[in-house]
Fold each of these.
Amino acid sequence: MDELQTFFTKLDEGQFWVLYALCVALALGCLPATFYFMRHRRIAQDTPTSKIRSASQGFVELQGHARSFDDAPLRSPGKHRDCAWYDYKVEERQRRGKSHQWVTVTHDRSTYSFYVDDGTGVCAIDPQAAKMMPKTTDIWRQGQHRFTEARIDEREFIYCLGQFETEQGYSREKAIKESTRAYLYELKKNRDELLRQFDRDGDGEIDMDEWQRARAAAHDHARREVLDDYQPIQHHSLVQPFNKKFPFVVSGYDQRTLTQRYLIFALTALVGFFVAGTFTIVMTTLI
């Protein structure tokens, strides 16, 4: 402690106050960060894994493999790999005063949604709202430039926490109604076909009785299209939880590895709090 006091007394006034402000800010930031990571660790440990096919609406844990929409993978800008998501950054080494710094000159982050597929179904994920924690990060240099590319590769394992929502598709009757409407719309666009099929009196016009026949034919066509065993299509998505204390995380790490990382982050923040707090106390006694 005496050595710390001696070190601080040797600082000029400007250096002293800058360091004091930094220590206060670090202490105030590290303490809530400790609770943040410990809370996320506990949530990840306590939330059971759900299957997409039978998942309840609400906060869930899912795990499966990343899949691009329509099985059309993205191409990562740096390594040119098939992927579901990427974050690509190019930095340039520039002189700033007497030192050099890496300055970002290009940053490209994928905004396209993708699926998590667990074998029982697929669930759409919006990466713009999620905390992305990819397992794969490549860093390389060329001359004065440094390239960093984080990716979730196509079919890579992913672990997810978030709010599970399901949008129910059309019922059978609704599907028949929509199919009937689409069939009639196509007939209206093709007037020659409409007249050929339903202009019974040959006057070149469709009267009310002929239009009713067209509607009945469209309805019969729709009923044949929509089978008796038709099941509504469900669209699942994982979104930001309503309760902001719950995380929305997409990770390339499994639950065990992720919770270990949260623990390391929490302990690091706690050490930072104690170190910065000790410095702040010692410097406060010298004010």
Amino acid sequence: MKLRPWTLVFILVAGGIAAAAWNGFHRISNAVVIYVSEDQVFADPILRDFERDTGIKVRAVFDTEETKSAGVMNRLIAEKDNPQADVYWANEPIRAEVLRQQGVAAPYRSANAEGIPASFRDPDGFWTGFSARARMLIVNKSVTVKPASVFAYADSRWAGQAVIAHPLFGTTTAHIAALFAALGDEKAKTFMEQMKTNGVHISASNGDSADQVAAGTYAFAMVDSDDIASRVKQGGAVEGIYPDQQEGGIGCFIVPNAVVLIKGAQHARQAMQLIDYLLSRQTEKKLAFSDAAQIPLHAGVETPPQVVQLEKLKVMTVNYADVAAKMQSIQPFLKDWAGH
């Protein structure tokens, strides 16, 4: 298709205006650029509060739902030699750890990280976790005998009745990588093949999985706790179950947010202020009371009744650095498993 001359001129002018606006923002001295994998509906109010409280302008670039976490992470890696972002707000620590391993992250130890359990922080300060989600089973209320484990996906009684988000994106990838790290490759691959044999359906996202369970298309899915909270609020006929809480169970996989200072950040001072803000108890309280219903990592932060305290859960024991390495090594297997 040929472009008319005036159309080409318009495209070039529009592109030039956009580039000039971006470059102009970078020249603002009291500004910060953040790439965000957390859902925009939850992250944006926090960032606007930061602007109001500090007077620092924020330019945020958000992931899409379908490429959640992978999109901006890959962009940060591509921009490694010419960083455009100052901060990365990851919706889980696995890809934050990948950025450390790729040399994209810079160390920063915020005073507000004190009190956050060491298991949710990089020991050298390259990333710090805050405000967590739990990976939970969302179950349609019409189901009489409820699944209680992630391994229900491989149970023949649930043949053709389960759905899971695409394994190459978002927290589903992180959860599967954590299972590989915990079980070992052989047992984890066996579980994944049993899941496929059992007729699991692959959806576009956690949100899509939650909607299909709420509609009664499938009996259950493994999603994030905020997906369940939103469907319950909407009046969906669903309930959430923390998986593998029984004696000898593997425990519930906890997915904290993670914040990263980008190496070579153009607005380093403002970036550190933003990181301090995100790691504050105040921010954790806001995220707990928001529709995200996230679990604070600081002890003693006020929460609404529906947010379970971290110490009351049987938590899956993971090393996020090991999970990050495993996530990269199992990509070929996951592509094959998903039919790519």
Amino acid sequence: MAVRVRISTIALPLLVCLSAFSFAQELGREVGLPLLVNLPTAPIPVRADGRNVLVYELHLTNSGSKPVTLVRVEVWGSGRLAVLEGDELAKAVKPSGLAAGHPTMIGPGLHVVVLFWLSLDEVPTAIRHLVLGKLGEDPQPLTVEYRSIAVGGHPVRLRPPLRGDRWVAVNGPSNETHHRRSWLAFGGRALVPERFAIDFVRTSEAGSFTKGDPADNRSYAGYGAEVFAVAEARVASVKDGIPDNVPANKSPTGPQTLDTMAGNFVALDLGSGRYAFFAHLQPGSLRVRPGDRVRAGQVLGLVGNSGNSNAPHLHFQVSDGPSLLFGDGLPYVFESFFHEGRLRKSEIPLQNWVVRFQ
């Protein structure tokens, strides 16, 4: 009798486990996609072209043994805000590590990033995501829903880093540029340091980038232009002494390392965990030192062509850390600028906009 009780006690948990396993197998469609979903950086709304823009990334990792093919990703607030599918979804997906063929196919154990650029009339208080995909050869789409994420905060408001007209926001904010699509893992975080970065390049009055010998930095309209502090701030770090490159040359002057990629630069501590970076400045032109206090509009240096650069320009960005590469890119707006003859206030210029700063 005692033996029968002991056997029943041992067997019961095993029967329960087998039963649960069978239940999950039979109802696999209700279990959903085997995707690990993460939104590492909650979006901060920023004004651009008269609308509110949310710029962020959704990370998807296939934890299963079969490939997952993404069909559609939906973004919801109080209602449905956006749908990515077809070619639009394929363009928004950036594979990480080994590619599995088509951008929307996530192989077993692999990872992709879905890049979002939502232009909205009103800012939602929170967003959630619904991902639809096909598992292996199963034609029936499965789903996984990611929890609600709060939307809030404000971009830092800055004075322009340059003055004058004909400044082109090359590689400026959009969902397509290499600034936007470059992400890395550092310190256990997924970072997009250049999420809102802009390469300001000046054109001549004729509208060309060069006037004269294209291999001479002085032929570029922006070369030597003054670069200004965008706010009252403390100088966090500087780099000087890196020579300018020969424009249009495929190989920069000197080796490219983490220490030299930004060329000669100034980093300003804006407070509240925000840092402004001014990169590729002329050697010998820097007029500040670490620890200095600067006022808005104070000259920091001159536009150059140092570091990872093939033409004179100012690389500008705001991040949440004191390093150009190892901080997460934050939104910002300029107090004012002109675009196509229209005064823009508290907005960020978009990709390839030609702007005039006062």
